[in-house]
Design goal:
Layout lengths: L2 H8 L1 H19 L1 H118 L4 H14 L1
Helix pairs in contact: 3-4
Length: about 170
């Protein structure tokens, strides 16, 4: 064998180069590049499907977020309306309570005035009765004293007895 062939065969770089060429030839013959390309295409399709799913989920999440924000705004508006209605009801109830209180006070004042008037009338009647009794007793004593000093008249005695019966 010639020396150049021996030098060629003795160089490890040449063996590595020929090994790579043979390996690549086998890979091409078996269809390895097509399989690698198909695997990469499949992986790319899976990644693209995942990206599409993520985009769809993001769109759903944004729509759900917008719906939740809308519901929140509606709930806040409804709560504000309820609060305003409650405040209006409370104000109306306060006005009603004030009117009822004033009515009750007026009714009780009228009742008290009637009781006072009744008590005044009763006291006046009691005073008149006491005055009449006192006047009768005084008149009886005066007449008794005059009669005792004067002579007795039966008609005057009868009139005094009638006067005492009429005043009581």
């Amino acid at each position: 064998m010639p020396a150049s062939v021996i030098a060629f065969l003795g160089s490890p770089e040449n063996w590595v180069g020929w090994g790579v060429i043979v390996f690549l030839g086998i890979v091409v013959y078996v269809g390895g590049f097509k399989k690698v390309a198909a695997a990469l295409d499949a992986k790319s399709a899976v990644i693209q499907a995942d990206l599409d799913e993520a985009a769809r989920l993001r769109a759903e999440a944004e729509a759900l977020l917008a719906e939740i924000r809308s519901q929140k705004e509606d709930a806040e508006k409804q709560a504000a309306g309820m609060l305003a209605a409650a405040e209006a009801d409370a104000a109306r109830m306060a006005v009603d309570a004030q009117a009822k209180l004033e009515e009750t006070i007026a009714r009780r004042a009228a009742l008290a005035e009637r009781k006072i008037a009744s008590a005044e009338a009763q006291a006046a009647a009691d005073v008149k009765a006491a005055a009449a009794d006192l006047a009768t007793q005084t008149a009886e004593r005066l007449l008794t004293a005059r009669i005792a000093t004067a002579k007795a008249d039966p008609s005057v005695d009868a009139a005094i007895a009638q006067l005492a019966g009429r005043l009581n």
